[in-house]
# Entry
Amino acid sequence: MPRPMYDLSFTALEAEVVASGLRPVHAKTLWRALHRDGVEDLTERADFLPPLRRWIGERVSGAGFSIALPPVRSETASSDGLTRKYLLALEDGQEVETVLMGYPGRHTACISTQAGCAMGCVFCATGQMGFIRHLTAGEIVAQVLHCRRVLRAAGSDGLRNLVLMGMGEPLHNYDAVMAALEIITDRRGINIGPARITISTVGVVPGILRLAAEQRPYGLAVSLHGATEEERATLVPVSRRWPLDELIAVCREYCRLTARRIFFEWTLIAGRNDSAETARRLAVLLKGIDAHINLIPLNPTESYDGAAASADSARAFQRILRDAGFPATIRQRRGIDVAAGCGQLRAERRGA
Ligand code: SAH
Ligand code: SF4
# Structure
């Protein structure tokens, strides 16, 4: 089996190149071609010096390294054309979703970190699948390269923001995610600024503490969905493992250690977590935290009978948070016509 070259950090690639007797400068050339230029065929590069060409001829083929990106299994676009969703096929046949959203010049890619998810949030199509496996760093990087290739083919190279809000729980796959983000932020390569990257977590407490301890420079979003333990645990089963009180205490600690703002994600479900009383409780819960709350009306999924909160209750919820001093936005349900919710495209294809 060939080894995906996108799994390698710059240092690891350099070590490979140097171990073959080449000068380190060739690693830089190769890295730029792969990550900055996103080339599909390394043999086409006329600017490569003969030793690098030879190395590529020997090593980037057969059982050596592979630079192929995962093929697109299916693709859908929203009717407004602003959201495109790709189902990418991995080496072992697993499929993950990557979504590209935005306007020319400022696109956001939403990428997956696992096939399936172990966290089991009841309203989430990925949670309903269960856990299949972690993605490798290279599989995470490849999704970003795929998005840039699509944008470049359309004459735009404006991939500016990255959110880890596709399938899976990023902090359950911590090491591969951090390795991927180091590659994605490398200035010689893809070069997406760390401040333009947001990691979204269901609330994996040890992972949040580790992000703070390691002073990782990325944005953090915490999916809350409930303002009391009881309300949250019915939607987010892992709340029993990392209870709400503990999670909020850790969020405070994260803010103290990093001086960063936290985004809180809140899927609004009619009659479950969209009341004025819940909004007031949430405001009390988050008191003193530098928080921005994103309200996301539920995208209905096959195995969950909840419905999206009405526009009126979403606005009322937002008003209460704003009156309490919190920035709160209602995320547009962009591309609902392309099954834009997390994991929904794959679930649809499987007839789940
Ligand atoms: N596992 C991480 C990141 C992936 S999910 C997390 O849970 O944060 C990204 C966001 O989409 C989460 O806030 C999640 O609660 C939300 N989400 C999942 N399914 C949804 C649905 N059907 N409708 C609305 N939001 C959903
Ligand atoms: Fe996993 Fe996030 Fe879906 Fe929950 S919402 S099941 S944590 S992907």
Summary: Residues 137-153 form the longest helix (17 residues). The longest strand covers residues 95-103.
